[in-house]
Amino acid sequence: MSMVLSHRTALELYRSSMMPVSGYEKVSFLSLSVPTRNDVECYRALPIRTSHIPLHCVVPKPRNRRNIKNGHCHVFGGEMNAICLHRSTDESSLCVVSPEVLFLEMAAQLSGIELVKLGYELCGVYSLPMSQPNYAGIPRGYSRRKALTSVARLTAHVASQSNNRSVKKARWALRYVLDGSASPRETELSMLMVLPRKLGGYGLRKPEIRHEFATSSEVLLFLSGKSTAFDLHWPDAGLLLRYGGQALKGNDDDRKRNRHLTSLDAAGSRVVHVTNRDIRHAESLDEVADAVARCHGRHLRNDLQYDFAARQAELRERVLTGN
Question: Both 267 and 302 in a single domain?
């Protein structure tokens, strides 16, 4: 069997617990044989939890395409190093496209906002749940893992491709992707902060995502996914946007004062606090974003030529989960 899984099948596989993040073998795509009907049957017999979705695979030339029941055979017109998942005794291989190739493939199927979200997931240290429950029948939340790729590697791959609609969309999306997100909430807050005003975002400069731990127990909580604390760091402005999940203690006036009168951390950076409640309420997050903008020496414009509130509501609906 020589089959290279791609598109949605590859994405679901990367979200599964069986996908290796290191120590895997890379195989030249052009060295693999064309999949046969037996290859498809062998794949569907494997204990891989992607059998409920259409099978997507890639071949090097149009004449190599095959009709696949409940599946799609795509043409990938170039060389790549596929990641080998399984090699049998007869030297047949089951492979999957690299995260860099997957990102560009999904650019043809996702909206720009969805592609930005996928970029955060691939460059982050978390996986979203697969589209079906796990073996125990219990729906999974997001899980922690090593980053599959980086913004730099995605950018380099996109830059090496011929210019087309998918490449343009991928190039645009990467302008707003950050490395190191550890949860969907980090991704959502980062996207709202950096996406342009014309789309309903705040149009702030790209920060760095930072996780710091004072004790070993905090590290364990983070690795287990039970800790959601993180910072968005703007080194040039000496500013931290600190997310702690729960609301700050005190009444509304105290919380507002804590947000606008920024504190200093041990390194001397100004700290603006944000909570899950702030993210869920647009008016509260507006105040947070304005505080961040003022730390950069600017104010968020209100004299826009379009209905910002309407665009903001649309973006929040597309970005936020469990809003």
Answer: yes
